[in-house]
Amino acid sequence: MRAFCLPLVFAALALLYGFYSCHQILDFYLIGFDGITSDISVIFTAPLYAALFCLFYQSAAFRLFNRVVKFSTYKECIFQIAFQITNTFTLLITGWLIAWKKSAELVTQSKLVSIESMDIMLIYIISSALSFALFITIRKRMAD
Length: 144
Known about the structure:
Elements: H1 2-30, E1 36-37, H2 41-68, H3 73-107, E2 112-113, H4 117-143
Parallel strand pairs: 1-2
Helix pairs in contact: 1-2, 1-3, 2-4, 3-4
């Protein structure tokens, strides 16, 4: 029963993580900007897209990890917690690096600015690919 609930628990955590982490990425973009955003709908829709992306990513990663090597419930739980922590750090680092250039451009502006959802989703895709590649390698090494 515990092994069945594990993907559900981490899927719920991924939804919450995706929703709340998007606000941090938006803060990276708008740091130091005193102007007005022209399209405020991104502030409401981007966290929903990020939450759905994180849910899909966590579910797909969980299944792919189990195809590589099956772990015991305890070992799988520890592995998934480490995976979530690494996802958080890679997201923050990638978000800071990509938004750094954008926020430098925004500081010099005092007019309307538009935030694109694709810029934010690009941050999630890059950080997810980095974390997944790292942890698929770790999982293969742990099998040996």
